[in-house]
Fold:
Amino acid sequence: MTPSPSHDTLPGRRRFIRLAGGGVVLAATAPLAVVGCTAGMPAAALQPWSAPSDALEIREFMLAHALLAPNPHNRQPWIADLQEPGAITLFCDAGRLLPETDPFGRQILIGCGAFLELAVQAAAQHGRAVQVSLFPDGEPSDQTLPGGVRVARLAVGEPGSAEPDRLFAQVRVRSTQKGFYDNQRVLAAPLWQRLLRASPTQPSLLLGQVAEPARMAALRQLTRGAFEIEMLTPATYLESARLMRIGPTEIARYRDGISITGVMPRLLNAVGVFDRFAVPERGNDTHQRMLDHWRPSETGSGYFWMATQGNSRRDQIAVGRVFVRAQLQATADGFSLHPLSQALQEFDAMREARRTLHAALGLDPMEQPLQMLCRVGYALEPAGHSPRRALHDLLRT
Structure:
């Protein structure tokens, strides 16, 4: 039997990988973020971003907008039960958690908060108020994953009970731009103020900004180091790798996760050169390409952050509601808001980075836990939308 050739006996293949260059960069580092380019995206995966039919019943109209909410790793962890007339019960989908990077489900519940906010805005667009009752079975522990938990019951009010929300027009325009921002463009003070005031007062929330060059430089170094930790830790890297959707066929099949639409990574994947499950190692070529791919995340006009006084599950829901309003406000004002979640994650290897980030912002991680850190600025290229599952995939009737 002829032995399989080693890598050293395949100089042609090795040269091909080196020549592929930029394609490997994207393929090796895509676990960080959904690729924000509409090109190469199957139409079905983007259809939910189109205006929903006027024939939808009010609760379906609400959900058709709520499912566009930003959420970690684009997991879309939502089940909407419509069995009770006039109400929606939101469950956290136990099959869509991130146990390695989000071991307590904090980020998942922030995504659920964003979902609730958009549902409420959509109802208001039809003049109907919504009574949101959080955790009808009791608030879950902050140390366990919330899979299967009833997150909220939404009772839909009568027509004429609410006024339209001024930010609703941005719901289907909003996207998260993960590319390069203009380092030379300053965000004007009135825009910062509108961002910080995008939501009605939440007494448990602390919101702030960083725009001083020295502090921005420190945060860029901190966030880069946290990104390295996530990518070089096998369990967290592989959690992302399992959510890679490479090319239109996979994207159309799953309509979630981390979409990779570039021609080169799709080609390398098709010919078996790219192994999405190969964990990067410090100092190798893939590690350097990974850092190169991170470079856009170190551009922008500043940082926007959100912390809470305490860390209850209700606090986390409130963060999601305020965050999506802030992102809608940024959209209305013509700039971008890109969450950088790595240094906030609670897995063991990230502990020191998380502590250092809190110190840099003057926060006590026990009393004032940081919930969101976002770079802010003017994107150099427009962002596309990320895939969404069809409305019927979320429903329980």
User: Anything to note?
Assistant: The longest helix spans residues 106-125. Residues 1-37 have pLDDT under 50 and may be disordered. The radius of gyration is 21 Å.
